[in-house]
Inverse folding.
């Protein structure tokens, strides 16, 4: 096993089944994964593609593991960026563990070449994609903005007394 | 989110995150080296960062490797910077449709 190069984690208030669905269906990926639609039948050896709006392929790979709803891994090649497209294929692994608060999702990206265009793009992209998935699945929490805990705005007293 | 801000409100912990940004996948020993701090207090700071989700870790054989996990920072960005992007409202509606469709199957 090669040493993992990037490890991103989050806990999502949703069951693993739903997180899996978020990772593997185009209706979901389009909403948080830079607008791309995932396409694969998610069986080992199958191809996986992330399609842009114009149906061009942004990322392509091959499914390595699909242990529903626990572990998904595939090879990864950015096609949109010419520098990254020239890099050898890397690998991404998603681990889904049920925890009390929902699902702990780990995203491990490895087999990267140090300082490569792919490594830079991966480091920049994953936090946003993972946070986007979390927001999407936790709809209630994301739109509910609570009032500040410390009062201190003019008009606060009047509003509270009303 | 409280935990994120609390964890970031300390220069030593921010320095630890800087070190992980420079090199991902470091052991506690590597992180202690050159910090001029006792191993025990570095471990304590790391635990706080882990608790806040700013540091993720993986066992690699016998070594516990630490990584910079910027997902909580991306969440902060989403909360205040992407709020009015309208895309969110559409996303929630689409999600609802997709889930309902799935339940009807």
């Amino acid at each position: 096993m090669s040493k993992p190069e990037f490890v991103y984690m989050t806990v999502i208030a949703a069951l693993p089944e739903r997180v899996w669905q978020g990772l593997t269906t185009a209706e979901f990926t389009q909403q948080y994964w830079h607008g791309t639609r995932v396409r694969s039948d998610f069986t080992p050896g199958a191809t996986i593609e992330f399609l842009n709006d114009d149906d061009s392929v942004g990322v392509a790979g091959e499914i390595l593991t699909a242990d529903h709803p626990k572990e998904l891994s595939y090879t990864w090649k950015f096609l949109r960026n010419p520098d990254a497209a020239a890099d050898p294929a890397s690998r991404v692994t998603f681990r889904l563990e049920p925890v009390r608060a929902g699902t702990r999702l780990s995203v491990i990206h490895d087999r990267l070449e140090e300082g490569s265009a792919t490594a830079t793009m991966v480091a920049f992209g994953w936090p946003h994609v993972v946070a986007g998935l979390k927001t999407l699945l936790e709809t209630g929490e994301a739109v509910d903005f609570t009032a500040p805990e410390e009062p201190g705005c003019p008009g606060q007293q009047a509003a509270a007394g009303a | 989110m409280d935990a994120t801000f609390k964890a970031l409100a300390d220069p030593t912990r921010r320095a630890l995150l800087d070190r992980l940004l420079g090199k991902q996948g470091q052991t506690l020993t590597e992180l202690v080296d050159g910090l001029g701090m006792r191993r025990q207090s570095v471990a304590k700071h790391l635990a706080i960062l882990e608790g806040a989700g700013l540091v993720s870790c993986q066992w690699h054989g016998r070594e516990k490797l630490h990584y910079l996990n910027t997902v909580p920072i991306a969440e902060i960005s989403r909360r205040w910077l992407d709020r009015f992007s309208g895309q969110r409202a559409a996303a929630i509606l689409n999600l609802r449709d997709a889930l309902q469709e799935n339940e009807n199957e």
User: Anything to note?
Assistant: The beta strands of chain B are 55-60, 63-68. The helical segments of chain B are 2-8, 11-22, 28-32, 39-51, 71-81, 87-104. Chain B has six helices and two strands. Chain B has a mean pLDDT of 86.
